Amino acid sequence: MGEKQLKNRLTASEVSNLWAAYQSNSVTKVGLSYFLNHVEDQDIKALLEECKLLSEQELKEISTLFQAENYPIPQGFTEEDVQKDAPRLFSDALYLEYVFNMFIIALNTYSMALSVSEREDVVTFFSKCLDSARKLHLKTKILTKEKGLHAKHPLLPVPKEIEFVKKDSFLSGWFGKRRPLLGMEISNLLFHSKRNALGHALITGFSQVATTKELRSFFEKGKDISEKHLTVFTTLLRNESMDQGTTMMTSEVSVSKTAPFSDKFMMYIVTSLINSSIGQYGVSLSSSPRHDLGLHYTRLIADISKYANESANILIDKGWMEQPPIAADRKELAK
Question: What is the CATH number of domain 11-146?
């Protein structure tokens, strides 16, 4: 292999992020194909169609990049993972909330992928992905407001002058005088309460339609965890007289017991939510100076990390975990 060819090969970061983007877009394409078979609201339907078209386009572009490298195209998820004619499991409102959260995750992952990419064509690809996600995120947010589904965030008083922290009580939380929540702390708590409400609703639906007792038990445990975490966040907000964005979404789940998705697909969705929550809790931990909040996040991260490990073991045991790009095992090769 010539020096020029070697320099132009995909880096570890690039191939890993492209691989992950392929998995994510294949999930989106499959999920939306089922949503579109049941959605009734025409505005939400148009948005879902646009999202599905985007996922198909990005899948094609990633495949082209891999083919040029003679890199195996991931299996991802296919039409075999969905039963489009299965009865409706979720409402239009939940479709919209799901898509809204999907783009929040996309904005984070694509911005990170862009920041670590070096090759010009890969940089261009992730730049386009980030721009498309930004536009659709905004469109989704506007639509949630139009449909009366957007929870307005609370307002903060405008300070009369610049102030500096003078007391160590700024950091306390368990004992003594507890300061009010910072704006960033409020934002984090609202985000996590809404994310757990969505997760609880999704896992409720999955627990109804999973085909094995093992997976139903796994999803039931996830319901309990998300409800417990939601209670922590809503309690903290209510202690500050802030209840916005804390409504459960379980009523948006039908009573259907027919699975629209494969067990593998549902496990992937839940695993993605778990991994995203671990990362978001970590970010919130670093931006929450009040000690009681830090301890809450530390405990909740440990809680869902155990659940993530259980999820990984199930995926491996079932043969559902596609191996991500991996370094060569030099010790094994030396044998």
Answer: 1.20.1260.10
Q: What are phi and psi of 105, to 5 degrees?
A: -65, -40
* Per-residue pLDDT reduced to its tens digit, 168-203: 777 875 566 778 899 999 999 999 999 999 999 999
Strand (E) or helix (H) holding 291:
helix 291-317
- CA gap 203, 57 in Å, rounded: 29
What is the spatial distance between Cα 181 and Cα 190, in angstroms, rounded to a whole number?
A: 12
Is-contact 52 108, C-beta < 8 A?
A: no
What is the number of helices (H) and of strands (E) in the chain? 10, 0
Domains 11-146 and 180-317 share a fold: yes
pTM, whole model, 2 decimals? 0.91
The CATH code belonging to domain 180-317 is 1.20.1260.10
**Which token pair is 231?**
């209670």
Which amino acid would we find at residue 316? I
- DSSP strands (E only) in 196-238: none
Nearest to 163 by CA among 179, 177, 176: 179
Token readout for 311 is: 């999820």
pLDDT digits (tens, 9 = 90+) for 197-210: 999 999 999 999 99
Q: What is the CA radius of gyration of the chain?
A: 22
CA 203 to chain CA centroid, Å, is 14
Domains of the chain by residue range = 11-146, 180-317
Q: b or e along 192-224 (b: 16 or more beta carbons within 10 Å of the residue's beta carbon)?
A: bbbbbbbbbbbbbbbbbbbeeeebeebbeebbe
